[in-house]
User: What shape does this take?
Amino acid sequence: AQSVAQPEDQVNVAEGNPLTVKCTYSVSGNPYLFWYVQYPNRGLQFLLKYITGDNLVKGSYGFEAEFNKSQTSFHLKKPSALVSDSALYFCAVSLNTGFQKLVFGTGTRLLVSP
Amino acid sequence: GAVVSQHPSRVICKSGTSVKIECRSLDFQATTMFWYRQFPKQSLMLMATSNEGSKATYEQGVEKDKFLINHASLTLSTLTVTSAHPEDSSFYICSAIYRGGASYNEQFFGPGTRLTVL
Assistant: This one.
């Protein structure tokens, strides 16, 4: 069965500093990987996805993520954090089977301090 | 484009009553819609997968008679929580997949519905 782990409940970073939100996955086939962001009492907003091709994926709001097959990781990164980036971030995985069911990680709260 | 709406955004009901939540894809046709449940400070748990014109597929542990799902058209799916109880209080989120296009279609999420059962 596929699963996603986000080892950090919360990440704290100062504005202007680089940020990393970690995600590792476990699937039996080739994964489709996603990052979503959730603001309080809101649904999820899509940030980026990895399907195939370049391991470095660029997404919305300056975020990027690197797919590392050997380490089964898909960490979310941003070179310079903004206070407005403070939110809950979810990593998700789906199998490369055409069936779009997603399995989500437990989420990481990002807190960017001024 | 790719906007998904949910109605209502918040609902408070008495125990024992039924509540219907609507999920609409506003500017695209959705072959498949998903219903999730999110508890405070927890991840999204998939409840069921809804395909237009067919019965929903429920995840293990989700009571199909309690959480009725209807996907009557390519733009509308409804979740009805029947005989609601306080433990059904939660944040319910739907998502929809765009019909056609790329080989893999990302999910577009609605803004969620906060259900409180008194």
